[in-house]
């Protein structure tokens, strides 16, 4: 049913749209107080970065001379923002629409969604974690005053600090009894993530093995089945950090363990709210990952894309040490309005 | 039995999950922050009524169990069992309330429902998306009360209470989503 019809039938449904405004105002006030610049980067872009797991929307730009050019709707403003950081901007944030094709039919995804991203230079993911805690508490204060307990879909989440923090390796050991050593190969410098090794563990656990399954697929299937149900449901928000390298195309590897990227996610009541990284600033490493990702896209059924080499140029020119995050605003609204599905927070006219 | 892919999943479908018949209660496409697509399902074991969550790799093949649908009349509930009758053969079958779940609140005696059967085994009810039920008890709405989203509670003919807008009166027939228990619209005709 188109949203206007639902709103006409049930005027209570307007509430969630007022809440959206409250949350977005709170976010702007939060960054304003910190003197952080809001940027507005283009949604239509001539090229995108190769991320094999995103299916981007593409369209055609026709100029005055009737010349046709491919344009993409951004899956995230990350690349544009990093170009601004390379240009000398320090801290900034953006609230923008993002688009990811094939992401319909889900409580947590919509092909068109609103994302908040912010970046800090001379910072690591620890600084972003701190921002996250402050921001969520700030938004909560605006909406719920002194009440720091959220109820989301029968989960009670106490927002007072400290929040639960667990590394991916600890979580796998605790909830799945798998050690990182069992699914990786430290000695193999070329491929520390042998598919064979993790497939064997997955098979023992009763998962099915198909030809062409990748290391990442087995990892994520175990993660989604055995780890994720425990995140953000133990009475506090959960920050889960330090992911295996195949799970972050633009993240920086840890100094003491090149299998791990400095990346974290935040869960509240089973909602994955945000995804953050200490960003990869090394040009040649990024170029190598681009190549690998491009090959995966060629091997999959995904559409061919025009690769954003300008981003590599920006990196080459010098991207300062930085960290950044993407937080789903629609998911924030789901959380504060206690809505089961992202569609309950959006206007649809289909 | 047919091999199907996760992209063919449908709510209500019966599949083999680790050797036992399960019905797909819910399914969701999920994309982890960084990674491939997956399909998260909530599966109900038709023997025990227990539900499990399982996340499939997108595109994984799964065994679908062939079922056919029989139309049966709902008779009554006794001892945690809902009794139905095939009006052609007069055979009676029962389905346990753990399988019917909250849909039991919307079952009306004498009405025909669709029942799934696999070989000679009754598996469960096919849940309609909308049920139409009459209001048997309702307070008068206060005229002029236009408070945004004001609601009141009414009782339907199956004895379930639901929240409706103030203009609903006793005797109205309402369309309800039995999945969520939400009022959809007034359908007096």
From TrEMBL, chain A:
One example GO MF annotation: tRNA binding
One GO cellular component term: cytosol
Sorted UniProt keywords: ATP-binding, Ligase, Nucleotide-binding
Domain Aminoacyl-transfer RNA synthetases class-II family profile: 17-350
SUPFAM superfamilies assigned to the protein according to its UniProt record, in alphabetical order: Class II aaRS and biotin synthetases
Database matches in Pfam families: tRNA-synt_2
Keyword Cell division found: no
Cell inner membrane as UniProt keyword: no
GO biological process: lysyl-tRNA aminoacylation
Domain of life: Bacteria
UniProt-listed InterPro entries: Aa-tRNA-synt_II, aa-tRNA-synth_II, aa-tRNA-synth_II/BPL/LPL, EpmA, Lys-tRNA-synth_II_C
Name under which the protein is recorded: EF-P lysine aminoacylase GenX
Native source species: Candidatus Gottesmanbacteria bacterium RBG_16_37_8
TrEMBL record, chain B:
Domain Elongation factor P C-terminal: residue ranges: 131-186
SMART domains for this protein: EFP, Elong-fact-P_C
CDD domains (UniProt xref): S1_EF-P_repeat_1, S1_EF-P_repeat_2
Protein name per Swiss-Prot or TrEMBL: Elongation factor P
Pathway the protein contributes to: Protein biosynthesis; polypeptide chain elongation
The organism of origin for this protein: Candidatus Gottesmanbacteria bacterium RBG_16_37_8
Residue stretches making up the Translation elongation factor P/YeiP central domain: 69-123
Domain of life: Bacteria
UniProt-listed InterPro entries: Elong-fact-P_C, NA-bd_OB-fold, Rib_uL2_dom2, Transl_elong_fac_P/YeiP, Transl_elong_KOW-like, Transl_elong_P/YeiP_cen, Transl_elongation_fac_P, Translation_prot_SH3-like_sf
Subcellular location: Cytoplasm
Function description: Involved in peptide bond synthesis. Stimulates efficient translation and peptide-bond synthesis on native or reconstituted 70S ribosomes in vitro. Probably functions indirectly by altering the affinity of the ribosome for aminoacyl-tRNA, thus increasing their reactivity as acceptors for peptidyl transferase.
Keywords recorded for this protein, A-Z: Cytoplasm, Elongation factor, Protein biosynthesis
Lineage: Bacteria, Candidatus Gottesmaniibacteriota
A GO MF label: translation elongation factor activity
Primary location recorded for the protein, binned into one broad class: cytoplasm
């Amino acid at each position: 049913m188109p949203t206007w019809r639902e709103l006409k039938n049930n005027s209570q449904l307007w509430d969630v749209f007022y809440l959206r405004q409250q949350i977005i105002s709170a976010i702007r006030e939060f960054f304003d107080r910190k003197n952080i610049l809001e940027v507005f980067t283009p949604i239509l872009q001539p090229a995108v970065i190769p991320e094999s797991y995103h299916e981007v929307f593409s369209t055609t730009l026709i100029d005055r001379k009737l010349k046709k050019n491919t344009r993409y709707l951004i899956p995230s403003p990350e690349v544009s923002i990093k170009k601004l950081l390379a240009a000398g901007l320090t801290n900034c944030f953006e609230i923008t629409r993002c688009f990811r094709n094939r992401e319909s039919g889900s409580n947590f995804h919509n092909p068109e969604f609103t994302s908040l991203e912010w970046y800090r230079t001379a910072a690591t993911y620890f600084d972003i974690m701190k921002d996250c805690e402050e921001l969520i508490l700030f938004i909560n204060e605006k909406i719920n005053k002194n009440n720091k307990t959220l109820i989301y879909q029968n989960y009670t989440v106490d927002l007072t600090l400290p929040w639960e923090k667990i590394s991916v390796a600890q979580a796998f050991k605790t909830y799945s009894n798998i050690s990182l050593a069992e699914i990786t190969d430290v000695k193999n410098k070329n491929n520390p993530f042998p598919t064979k090794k993790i497939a064997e563990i997955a098979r023992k656990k009763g998962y099915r093995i198909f030809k062409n399954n990748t290391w990442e697929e087995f990892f994520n299937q175990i993660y989604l089945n055995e780890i994720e149900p425990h995140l953000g449901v133990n009475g506090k928000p959960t920050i889960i950090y330090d992911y295996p390298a195949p799970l972050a195309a633009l993240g920086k590897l840890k100094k003491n363990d090149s299998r791990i990227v400095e990346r974290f996610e935040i869960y509240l009541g089973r909602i994955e709210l945000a995804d953050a990284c200490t960003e990869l600033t090394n040009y040649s490493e990024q170029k190598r990952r681009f190549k690998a990702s491009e090959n995966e896209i060629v091997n999959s059924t995904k559409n061919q894309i025009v690769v954003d080499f300008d981003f590599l140029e920006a990196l080459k020119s010098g991207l300062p040490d930085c960290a950044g995050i993407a937080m789903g605003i629609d998911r924030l609204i789901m959380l504060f309005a206690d809505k089961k599905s992202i569609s309950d927070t959006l206007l649809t006219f289909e | 039995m047919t091999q199907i892919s996760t992209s063919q999943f449908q709510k209500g479908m019966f599949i083999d999950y680790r050797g036992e018949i399960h019905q797909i209660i819910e399914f969701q496409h999920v994309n982890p922050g960084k990674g491939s697509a997956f399909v998260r399902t909530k599966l109900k074991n038709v023997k025990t009524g227990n539900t499990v969550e399982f996340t499939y790799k997108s595109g994984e093949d799964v065994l679908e169990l062939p079922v056919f649908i029989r139309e049966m009349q709902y008779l009554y509930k006794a001892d945690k069992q809902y009794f139905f009758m095939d009006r052609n053969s007069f055979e009676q079958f029962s389905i346990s309330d753990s399988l019917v779940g909250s849909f039991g609140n919307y079952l009306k005696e004498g009405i025909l429902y669709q029942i799934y059967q696999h070989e000679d085994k009754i598996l469960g009810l096919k849940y309609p998306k909308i049920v139409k039920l009459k209001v048997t008890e309702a307070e008068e709405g206060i005229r002029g009360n236009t408070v945004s989203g004001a609601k009141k509670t009414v009782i339907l003919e199956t004895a379930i209470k639901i929240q409706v807008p103030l203009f609903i009166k006793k005797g109205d027939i309402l369309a309800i989503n039995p999945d969520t228990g939400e009022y959809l619209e007034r359908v007096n005709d």
